[in-house]
Amino acid sequence: MSEPRRRSWAEPYKIKMVEPLKMTTREERERAIREAGYNTFLLKSEDVYIDLLTDSGTSAMSDRQWAGMMLGDEAYAGSRNFYHLEAAVREIYGYKHLVPTHQGRAAEHILSKILIKPGDVVPGNMYFTTTRLHQELAGGTFVDVIIDEAHDPASEHPFKGDVDLAKLQAVIAEHGAAKIPYVCIATAVNMAGGQPISLANLRAVRALCEAHGIRIIHDATRVAENAYFIKEREPGCAGMSVAAIVRALCDLSDGCTMSAKKDALVNIGGFLALNDDDLFDAARNLVVVYEGLHTYGGMAGRDMEAVAIGLHESVQYDHIRARVGQVKYLGEKLQKYGVPIVVPIGSHGVFLDAKAFLPHLDQDVYPAQALAAELYLDSGLRAMERGNVSSGRDPKTGLNRRPRLELVRLTIPRRVYTQAHMDVVAESVAEVYDRRDAIQGLTMVYEPPQLRFFQARFEPLA
Ligand code: F0G
Q: Whose CA is nearest to atom 5 of ligand 1?
C-alpha cells in the first residue's frame, strides 16, 4: 500500500447542540460600539457575531462534563465532587493540597495575602493583569524577568516564556531572598502572546530558586497548551505524553494558582494548590473568609465535577493538538494576508501587532483599543486590547506604562468555533488591514482606578 496523501486536519468531536449567532448591520454596530464607549468589554454579547474576546469561561463542555453536572453533590460541606476534583489535581498536576476558588483571581488573592508582605518583590515571566494587581494590593512589587525576546513581537524564539536567569539573579542580588516570597511562573504566557516556557529553562529556574530557598508558584491556567508546545519543540520531549509534560512542569514548582476557565474547559471555576502543609492551612483559613467553605470555595458541586472531568480532557493529545492547531490555522491565514502578528503563533489566540498595524498612531491614543473597535465595526468580530490600556499606570509616576507590546488579541474559545469561522475572521482582519491608514486613535474619557481596561470608555479623536 502506498503512503496516504496529506490528510486535512479536523476537529476531534462532532456537534450535538447549536447556539444560533446573530448578524448585525454596520449601522447597528456603529451604535453598539458608540454606546459601549469603544470598549469591546462593554458590548452586549448578543450584538457580537464571532466572539474572540477571551478563551476564559467560553469553552464548550463535553457530553461527559454535562453528564457530570448532573452528579453535583450540593452539600455545604464535604461534597463528593470536591474529592473528585482533589483526586484529579493530585493525579494530573501532582500538587498535594487543593483549595477551590470561584476563579483564578480569587486564588491569586488568597495566595498574595498569605505570602506577600509590604516591601516584597515578586519576580515573574511577564505580568498578568489580575495577578500583578493582587501582588500590589498585598504590598508587593512585580518585577519582570522574562527574556527580552518576549517583548519583541517579531522574535521567532521558540520559548518566549523563558525566564532570563541573569535578570532573576540580579533581582535576588539586589533585594535578597528574604524579600522574595516566591517567583511567579506562568505557562503559555498570556501577555506575551500565549508563549511557552521550556522544561529546561524551568529546571534552571528551579535550581537557582532552590539555592536561595525561594518558592516557585506556577500560574497553571494554560499549562496543557504549554506542554503541547514542549512536545512539539523541545529537544528530547517529542516522545513524552502531554500529560507527562504537564506533570513534569508542575513538579518543578511548590504550588499553583489556576483559572479552570481556560485549559480545564469549564465556564467557571479555579483553585489554589499547594504542597506545603502550613501554607495550605493558612490558605484554607482565608478561603472561608472570601470564597466559601474549603470544600467548595465559591463553586457549586456540579462545577467542581465539570472541572475534574475537564482537567482529564485537557491533557488528551487529540484535544490539545486540535485546540492549538485551530489557533495556528487562523494565524497562518493572517500571515498570508500580510497582517503583522506576534510570532511564533501562540497557544490560545492570535495577537495582532497594533504598533506595526497602525504605525501612524502614538501609543497614548491607544492603537490596539482603536483596532479592536474597528474590527467590531467591520464584521461584528469581538477582540480584546492587550496594550497600553491593559497595562495601566505606573503606581509611582502615574503615567501610562506604554508597554512594548501593543496587541489586539483574537482569542479562540475551546471547541466552540469551526474552521469556517476562522476564515471569516481572517477575511475581516485583512479588510481592515487594507484600509488601516484611515483608522484614527481614541481618547479615554472614563478611567477606572484598577484594571481599567474592563470598564474604561473612549471617544474617537477628531
Ligand atoms: N492568570 C492568567 C494567565 C489568566 O489568563 C487569567 C485570566 C487569570 C490568571 C485570572 O483568572 O479570570 O479566572 O480570575 N485571563 C482571562 C483572559 C480573563 O481573558 O485572558 P480568572
A: 190
